[in-house]
Amino acid sequence: MCVDAKPGKKSKTQFEVLETFPRCGYALLKCEPPVARTHQIRMRLHYAGFPVGGDELYGGKPLWLSRLKPNYRLKPGHEERPLLSRATLHAEGLPHPVTNELVTITAEWPKDLKVAVKYLRRFAM
Q1: Which domain does 92 fall in, by range?
Q2: Is 6 part of any domain?
Q3: 9 inside domain
Q4: Per-residue pLDDT tens for 58-114?
Q5: How many domains does the structure of the chain reveal?
Q6: Which pairing describes strands 102-104 and 26-32: parallel, antiparallel, or unpaired?
Q7: Each residue of 41-71: pLDDT tens digit?
Q8: DSSP notation for 40-100
Q9: What's the Cα-to-Cα distance from 70 to each of 14, 39, 83, rounded to whole Å?
Q10: Tens-place pLDDT, residues 1-12
């Protein structure tokens, strides 16, 4: 991946807020770029002041259970790891590279994303 400071092609991305987690400042979004330039989701959210969780390139912070759960206690001798330390993106459909028709791919959320959203719903609503 290359991030170029030069002006790129104009494009619009539709964003829909599906859930908010006000106690910690996170939200679950549905993002629809019009073309297969998924990197623009990360870039646009960053420039709007809402970086993607775990996206260090664009200022997204990892999600820590200790910052969500009241009275969190770590077992002695253990080091806390973030619930998500990667960019928290999951693709569900993309335009076909040749025909540009939407190809819908059904895939469950990865385990780390499921766990993170479960804890956000439990402790950050």
Answers
A1: 14-73+81-123
A2: no
A3: no
A4: 999 999 999 999 999 999 999 999 998 899 988 877 777 788 787 777 788 999 999
A5: 1
A6: unpaired
A7: 898 899 999 999 999 999 999 999 999 999 9
A8: HHHHHHHHTT-PPTT-GGGTPPPB-GGGTSTT--PPTT-----SB-S------EEE-TTT-
A9: 35, 35, 16
A10: 555 667 766 777
